[in-house]
Structures are given as C-alpha cells and as structure tokens.
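Good morning C.,

I know you're traveling, so I'll keep this short. The sequence:
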Amino acid sequence: MRFPWHIVLICGAVVAVLGMRLGYKTVTLGDTQIIDHYAKAFLTTMAASEVIVDSSDCYAVAGQSRWERLRVNCSVSDQQRWSYRVGWWGQLLGGRPELVEVVK
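The tokens, ready to paste straight into the viewer:
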C-alpha cells in the first residue's frame, strides 16, 4: 500500500491558498478602513437605540495584545465608551464590543 501523497498535496495547497489570502488581506487592509467600518457599526447600533452620536466620537489606539491590531473606542457619553477589539485581518475579537465604564 502506497502513502496517499495526493491528500498531503491537496491539504498543502489549501493551507497555501488560505495563507496567501490572509497575508494579502493584512497588507491591503488599512487602519482607516477598519476605523470607518467599526464607526459605522457603532452609529448603526446607537441609531437603533435612538441615541444621537457622531462618527467623530470614535478613535483608535494600538492593540494591547499580540493578536490585537487596533482597539476602536467610541464614546457615548463622558462615562461610557464602547471598545471594539480588532484583529490583524479586521475581524472583531471576542465576537462583540465591550462597554467600558470610564472612571474620572
């Protein structure tokens, strides 16, 4: 019985294609595009809650961990801020934004 090299080659090709796709996405996706995307998501969420906010309430800071590219913060008021943790490919880490209480 021979070793099934064609299965190994197919798996290797799939891994190579996925790696190239994610690498391309990382290189071409700019920080501004990520910030705009999550600012729009924030505006949509707040509009559904009938809270009036502006996209200028959102800003980004560098990620705090290895897998975090950016942290997009959007302020609702002086006491509340929504924080979107964004990964290297533009995905939202944790599945949903965090509501952060600002202590002054």
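Safe travels,
E.
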